Amino acid sequence: MEQYDYDLFVIGAGSGGVRACRIAASLGARVGVAEERYFGGTCVNVGCVPKKLFSYAAHYHDDLEDARGFGWSSPGFEFSWETLIRNKDTEINRLNGIYRTILDNNKVAIYEARARIEGPHELCIEDRHITAKYILLAVGGWPWIPDYPGSEFAISSNEVFSLDSLPKSITVVGGGYIALEFASIFTRLGSETCLVYRGDKLLRGFDEEIRDFISTEIGRHVDLKLEEDIVSIVNDNNKLDVLLKSGTRISCDTVLSATGRRPMTANLGLENVAVQLSDNGAIVVDDQFQTAEPSIYAIGDAIDRLALTPVALAQGQIVATTLFGGEGASMDYVNIPTAVFCHPNLATVGLTEQQALDKGMELDVYLATIKQLKHSLSGRDELSMIKLIVEKSSDRVIGLHLIGPDAGELVQGFAVAMNCGARKVDFDRTIGIHPTLAEEFVTMRTRRS
Prior knowledge:
By secondary structure, this protein is of the alpha/beta class. The chain has helices spanning 15-26, 41-46, 48-67, 81-105, 177-189, 208-219, 309-324, 353-358, 375-378, 407-419, 424-428, and strands at 6-11, 31-34, 109-111, 115-119, 122-125, 128-137, 141-143, 169-173, 192-197, 223-226, 230-236, 239-244, 249-252, 254-257, 261-263, 296-298, 338-340, 346-350, 363-370, 384-391, 397-403. The radius of gyration is 24 Å and the shape is globular.
């Protein structure tokens, strides 16, 4: 008779949790998973997938405008919010089914209910007592809205995907990924859009020149209010009266608070075990994602690392292979690429200039601002920026930053090169594809003064 009901029990069937289930099961483990909400987690349901679909919808606004400069006209084109929502829901339902099929095909026992921890190897699910040799917490995060008078009238990024109609006017609060993306989306879909951020420039933590550039570009299309914050919201007959700290008032239909996410670690029963939490509620883990309770592990947005879906996938695989495949491994966070799907897109891999300087490196910096060939006919007043940061002593490219169309698609390939230790001389001897934006990365010869 087995000592435990399961070798591994996972709480949360998001990307990281499902990956851990699949790998562990393929290695012979008996696996169970509890999911109280939806399969695929934040990314599939209220995150990167529907957000990218919305971003595609918004890009068609620019594409249809740009087409006129190339001889095309498009009379009769109208945007339907209802059609976008309906088709988005169809795709999300399809992906939910795929995640469930992955679990079923790997003979993972599924519990569609909330799980609470009762001890190092014990869980309770709907009054059912379950035991597991190992428990993996993959519970993800949840949007956080600051508390101020009227904050209950603001929505989060969770609700934005199911609005009944496109707001005629919207105020987006925040200066990170989600805020920039939705401000870009709504202004192009036709909403009068205001972006409010307490900082002096957008995207804290990114390279400073990139921040300056994207703040300017975003400010071309939305009413950008920097060094501001919301004091209160009053609902006046379904019109929101938003008071900012400067005394400015904004009247809008919708307020979207994109002010951050917090780990969903409350009410998990962690008080029953030795799992420790950081000040922001994140689960404290070591390099192998083990908590202070030896039988309990945690990954993804629930821990204090990079909150990116591919990172959670890699973490889930590391936990499964470590526990059941005999492969000890740790996560390498160097040169993890990331993209912001605002308009224009932004993507980056490696260090910012300031991070490199803080490490005591001597640098060569290459910077270019470019107008794409496309816009010589489209007439669009849009620029792209490319920045390379090179360590002088080794000639290695240690930072690569791009603002421009399909930035994520381009930077993904360069991330491979950087993980292989690419040097500036390797970039220089690579023949570019002409005419493209990407060729600028291999033709930059003049250092920034």
